[in-house]
Amino acid sequence: MTEKNIAYLRTSEAPTLPPPASEVGIRGWLWKNIFASMADYSSVSKTINSILMTILTVGSALFLYWIIAGLLDFTLFSATFSDPEGVKREACVVNAGACWPYVQAKWYQFMYGFYPAEEVWRVNVAMFLLAVGIAWLVFPMPRRGLVAALMLTAFPIVSFVLLNGMPIEHDGDLGKVFAGVWFPLIVAGVVGAGWFLARDGRLGEVAAAVAPILLMAAALFGLFAFLPLITAALDIALGTEVVETNQWGGLTITLVVAIAGIVASLPLGMLLALGRQSNAPILKYTSVIFIEVVRGIPLISVLFFASAMLPYFLEPGVDFNKLLRAMIGVMLFSAAYMAEVIRGGLQAMPKGQYEGGMSLGLSYWQQMRLIIMPQALTTVIPGIVNTFIGLFKDTTLVLIISIFDLLGMMNATLTDPTWATPTTAYTGYLVIALIYFVFCFGMSRYSVYMENKLHRGHR
Amino acid sequence: MSEQVQENAPRGGMTVSDQVAIEINGMNKWYGQFHVLRDIDLTVYEGERIVICGPSGSGKSTLIRCINALEEHQQGSIVVDGTRLTSDLKNIDKIRSEVGMCFQHFNLFPHLTILENCTLAPIWVRKIPKKEAIETAMHYLEKVKIPDQANKYPGQLSGGQQQRVAIARSLCMRPRIMLFDEPTSALDPEMIKEVLDTMIELAEEGMTMLCVTHEMGFARQVANRVIFMADGQIVEQNEPEEFFNNPQSDRTQQFLSQILGH
Ligand SMILES: Nc1ncnc2c1ncn2[C@@H]1O[C@H](COP(=O)(O)OP(=O)(O)OP(=O)(O)O)[C@@H](O)[C@H]1O
Ligand SMILES: [Mg+2]
């Protein structure tokens, strides 16, 4: 093409015109997004389309109105907000809406169950540590690796001691205190040395790869090792006493069980997923059988089995903490589900990534840890968070073995006749639903944020 | 063999020593029932630059992948740098860290920056301190002329740049032998030259190279031997001038007439 062929050539820049009215302002927006699809009657099919859209739009709007109006009425307009005379049910029964004084009165139980009030600061401290730790890991803060390690090792120990308490005998058993001092020091030394060696790759690959697992094992081990030391300190300083796990309840239990499941499921799930993909037959079939068996059984039946049947198999007198049983059940369950999610991510990895790693001389564990897992986990973040959310809600099933989690606790408070009104239960369920929603929605939002952050830049 | 190398030795100032880098003897490989490589005998001397060509499916990729044990062979022997390739993992890891490889599709790690791609293996395999690994990486990134991209991710680079990063990544391990499997065939024409230039530079420094490619200009310029493969066998090998001007077998003539266009 030469210039001669061009019939018209604009020599100055076109003037910028204001956008048409239909594109701007609230009216423009409303028209474009809501009404335009209902206003096209130019042909038969478009007319049908428009009518259908009208019906759907009006229907949805009515539905939304109905829900919102009902909720507002229940929670605000017809609700009882205070009970100044302390007459409990009489204050609420006169109104048709929510009974907020009931929530206020039972809030403690929703949160802590039957945890003794004078010891409840221990739960609060543990929750505070948890909140700080999570916030530290969620927001871009310095030294997150260290904090993550602490949250996986020290935090479980500290929070267990805080929640459970474990005073030393006061009849002068100094030997125990000394054991409590030396044993942890030795464990700490071993773990520290292992961590140092593994980090620099000086222990060889397998050790480096299993370092996180070693750390978790060490945490469990340390749980017992450090207990006397920490409890001794706490005991001397504050005079803590044991709060049996059957007194725990409410949100505390929900969080304890859910966090144990969430924290255990990722590493266990990774190992199971790798095991399932492995060429070593025994490893492979152990993983396959574990995953399939666990996925084939409802959680509720495992919990029930643990609670009702286990005592038949154990020797009389051997008591295996009920909460611990529930936690182990939940951990194994979430691990099996997580394994399948992660396996999906592993299968999405192109063969070239393995070959790129191999050709550089990276060992199997190095490839997994440095190349394959980071990418596989990133691709399945939605699935992982989905599993977490499911797990968080499934913890309510511990109710079946009469552990009173958030929902169970709320149910229990309904039996209190002093608060028996027609709307008490609805109020309680609404509050519980809201609490679950806040946690689950938070996790979901965080996963979106992580996805955006991790997908930025590559691909 | 050694006489042949003597003939080929003085080429463009690039010297070939009489040290054996790779020795393959009577090597056979099967994929299930399918006999991919048949009776391969090949000796590569240090500093040699070998171009392997042949029709699709003739086993070129399989051959060079056997050399760094990405594929295992079932019969015969492969000795790389004095280490015999067996199923012993120790030997395999050792050979892989001595032999660099560049792939058709680069196989960079998309979740790591260019610099991290280049320092990963030196740090984890060679146990080099991080600072030193970064210096080495920057040195090689400068050599392939993309030091300014060091903190980008592979997905943000053009194909030619990615392939040069892949070359730099291999070089950071300071390999004694480099394998290339069609390094330019996934690239747009205007990017092929920048990658070939990098490879030519590498050849001029005396790197031992085995390169599967159909870039015949590259073969003429730097190779001191061209190997023609068909149906899993080495049909013909010769120095480039002889190979292109005076091909011996019918298969070679046929192949060359197709690839050179007339
Ligand atoms: N993993 C595999 N399993 C079975 N057969 C395979 C496998 N990889 C390659 N082959 C077969 O082996 C033969 C040689 O493959 P190879 O990739 O080495 O060929 P090539 O010469 O590199 O071809 P191209 O020029 O197309 O890359 C082909 O017929 C191919 O179908
Ligand atoms: Mg090929």
Q: What is this structure, in a nutshell?
A:
By secondary structure, chain A is mainly α. In chain A, 71% of the residues lie in helices and 0% in strands.
Description:
- The complex is a heterodimer of chains A (459) and B (262).
- With 459 residues, chain A is mainly α.
- Chain A is 71% helix and 0% strand.
- In chain A, helix 4 crosses helix 18.
- The radius of gyration of chain A is 29 Å and the shape is globular.
- Chain A starts with 24 loop residues before the first helix and ends with a helix.
- By secondary structure, chain B is an alpha/beta fold.
- Chain B has a domain at 20-105 and 176-260: P-loop containing nucleotide triphosphate hydrolases (Rossmann fold, 3-Layer(aba) Sandwich).
- Chain B has helices at residues 2-8, 60-67, 89-98, 114-124, 130-143, 159-171, 189-204, 216-222, 240-245, 250-259, and strands at residues 20-31, 34-45, 49-53, 75-80, 83-84, 99-102, 177-181, 208-212, 225-230, 233-238.
- Chain B is globular, with a radius of gyration of 18 Å.
- Residues 1-13 of chain B have low confidence and may be disordered.
- Chain A binds chain B through residues 200-201, 352-353, 355-363, 366, 370-371, 374-375, 378, 454, 457-459, and chain B through 68, 70, 93-94, 96-97, 99-101, 103, 105, 107-111, 120-121, 124-125, 127, 152-156, 169-170, 173.
- The structure holds adenosine-5'-triphosphate and magnesium ion (MG).
- Magnesium ion is lined by residues 60-61, 181-182 of chain B.
